[in-house]
Amino acid sequence: MKQTEFFGEGSITQLKQLLYDMGAKRIFLVTGKNSFEKSGAKATMNDLLNELTVKRYEVISECPDLEFIKAGMNDLRLAECDAVVAVGGGNVIDTAKAVNFFSSQSITPEECIRSVSNNKGKGLPLVAIPTTSGSGSEATHFAVVYSGDVKHSLAAESILPDVAIVDPELTYSLSPYQTAVSGIDVFCQAIESAWATGSNDESRKYSRESLTLIMRSFISAVKMSSAESRRDMSLASNIAGKAINISKTTAPHAVSYSMTRMFGIPHGQAVCITLGEFLKFNYEVNSADCNDSRGEAHVKCTIEEIFKLTGSSDVNDCMEKIKSLIRSAGLKTNLRDLGIDSTDKLELIARSTNAERLSNNPRKITQEVLLEILKNVY
Ligand SMILES: [Fe+2]
Q1: Are residues 80 and 182 in the same domain?
Q2: For the chain, is the Cβ count within 10 Å smaller at the N or the C terminus?
């Protein structure tokens, strides 16, 4: 499916013409609790929204939760809208994607989660407008959905938003912490995409471009943000989204989901904590445990490219560089500082990580390895 994209300061003003071209008069507007106002999106969209019939749906859950998504489906049905506009971070955009996608299916969301590959329905036209430079969700055909503590990843071509409007000005009001925690997710997504077994030439090009922008502007966006650094990070986030849209993410993401769901650790913080350890682990890949059909030399080569892009001389230096980037952004580098303070909790995280989802990692991972890696960052 082809997506229409708008990028740049003030690009949110394109929305009016877009909705007009779509013939949309009744809008299902999915937003966060505060980010819609705080980002300036509401003020910019006010006149436009006054001309339309708008049903606003506020995402109050911390993660895209199935029960909450089902309530959204009910609201969408009752409101009889003709387009969905999502304005917010990854959670908001994923929720909007899931509400819209499930609503277009002839089976229940639960059945859908079990057999998503059989589902072909296309929801209403969806416009995604990120207010963080983080998830890249506006550029992917996936949506994360939690049912209880279980994380599901919906994947279907029709989930990709029809339109993405990436306006860096909407990220200007992010606090240093929000910038750090969303930006470090971009960093991890760019790196994981590079070594993912699902990568190809196109995704690696995106991953390289994204990583270059992050190395140039992440810390300055956190510490003394400027229009340039915000622009770089918005672009980096969108490009890393395009990279993982092809390659998917790998082990650091897989292991992070239970940290977020069970211990409330923000997504970017949870993902980055094991990144350095997995870099080392993956670099030590050999022919017996290589998951990538292109072989271990290919995997090593992609990781050496990460060394180059991060200005590192070797694997240990790169691990240090990753740690120092995380620290400079004001984030934590070990689990104990995040309240994961016993080996029982480490074991729980390792057990709760879906082994199937680790298959995109370039080196095979056992439960023992996973626990060892968690102990190394304890
Ligand atoms: Fe992520």
Answers
A1: no
A2: N
